[in-house]
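Service request form, structural biology core

Requester: graduate student, group of Dr. S.
Request type: structure prediction, single chain
Budget code: on file
Notes: please return the result as structure tokens.

Sequence provided:
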Amino acid sequence: MTFSSERANYAWAGGMCTVDHAPRHILDESTARRIEEERQRECPAHEGTVLHLVPKDIDMFDQEVLSFWMTAEASANAVARAVVVPSGLTALRHHIRWVFFSSDIPFRVFRNPQVAKGWLIDCWLQHQEDLGLVDTHEDVEPSSLG
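Core staff response, request fulfilled:
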């Protein structure tokens, strides 16, 4: 399922909502709130992970956006949230800053989209295991190890 607005393109697949933010826009807290409202309105049944992709040519990225994405309001129907930011220095600064703050769901800032996706998949699987929907610790008979 997909949806597009002037602020972002959304895609839902495999338990993950990917939010690809529009280039040449200001991404501040009020924009982040509108994006979150769109995400929840367009796919209210989604109860998975959320991946935000912030483009290199964003006009402005306000740090308050990250604070908002860590709130209970923004965490509705989300298991975990990852944000991919355009520069390594920004990712490191945000990672260090947010390590000391707690959020209602697992939350991390990354530089590499594939690493972020891998982390979100791990969070999703852990959530499924916690719910008893997946057993990742199957018993292996010693004789079958060869």
